Amino acid sequence: MSVGIVLVSHSSKLAEGLAELAAQMAPDVTIVAAGGLSDGSIGTDYDEVVAATQRADSGAGVVLLYDLGSAQMTAELAVESLADPSAAVVADGPLVEGAIAAAVAAQAGQDRKAVAEAAAAAGLPEDLEPAEATAGGDEVELVLHNEVGLHARPAAVLVRALSAFDAEVSVRLGDQEADGHSVLALMSLGARQGDRIRVRARGPQASAALDKAKELVDGNFGE
């Protein structure tokens, strides 16, 4: 089982669209949209958020994200009303980026605390390091042939795969290098079809991590 995610928004269309997007990167995670009022107008519905939180919980807990201030209050009240309030937590992070980061973390099997931290960290700037700053370790050079390059879904696929290895992994494009365990950092590289990237790994399973990265790139990330 994985941590569930609830997206609390004033807009039902926003919540549903984001849930659809996040599900593309985390197909095994329960992501429930709780947006708008029951009549379809703008606002947040306490009862709907409570019900969404209950639906999202498969036993590993739930992380709730929100868009605006009053949605935060609704989410917090919903958590407090649960039979076990400790089973859910409201993450203080950006709704869109946080939902993506949380979904990928949940898909990777991380616990509720780690998923909430991933959502919160998505609000922080993603620093792209100079390539020479992380010298050392094994390295492989790969060419991206898939249509969209290293963007949302491919980046999520790569992060999920690399999380299974005991290795620090980074991906370099030109003179910039990003953390191979961060979807947002990888997307920030802007790697496109035809670009040549270098994947560097350090740690006990560095070689296996690089083999997996090569497998995914050669297979166009399953596209």
UniProtKB/TrEMBL annotation:
GO terms for biological process: glycerol catabolic process; phosphoenolpyruvate-dependent sugar phosphotransferase system. Its EC number is 2.7.1.121. The keyword Amino-acid biosynthesis does not apply. GO terms for molecular function: phosphoenolpyruvate-glycerone phosphotransferase activity. It comes from the Bacteria. PROSITE patterns: PTS_EIIA_TYPE_4, PTS_HPR_DOM, PTS_HPR_HIS. InterPro entries: DhaM (IPR039643), DhaM_N (IPR012844), HPr-like (IPR000032), HPr-like_sf (IPR035895), PTS_EIIA_man-typ (IPR004701), PTS_EIIA_man-typ_sf (IPR036662), PTS_HPr_His_P_site (IPR001020). GO terms for cellular component: membrane. It holds the Pfam family PTS-HPr. Residues 137-223 form the HPr domain. Residues 2-128 form the PTS EIIA type-4 domain. It catalyses: dihydroxyacetone + phosphoenolpyruvate = dihydroxyacetone phosphate + pyruvate. Keywords: Kinase, Transferase. Homodimer. The dihydroxyacetone kinase complex is composed of a homodimer of DhaM, a homodimer of DhaK and the subunit DhaL. Component of the dihydroxyacetone kinase complex, which is responsible for the phosphoenolpyruvate (PEP)-dependent phosphorylation of dihydroxyacetone. DhaM serves as the phosphoryl donor. Is phosphorylated by phosphoenolpyruvate in an EI- and HPr-dependent reaction, and a phosphorelay system on histidine residues finally leads to phosphoryl transfer to DhaL and dihydroxyacetone. General (non sugar-specific) component of the phosphoenolpyruvate-dependent sugar phosphotransferase system (sugar PTS). This major carbohydrate active-transport system catalyzes the phosphorylation of incoming sugar substrates concomitantly with their translocation across the cell membrane. The phosphoryl group from phosphoenolpyruvate (PEP) is transferred to the phosphoryl carrier protein HPr by enzyme I. Phospho-HPr then transfers it to the PTS EIIA domain. This is Phosphocarrier protein HPr.
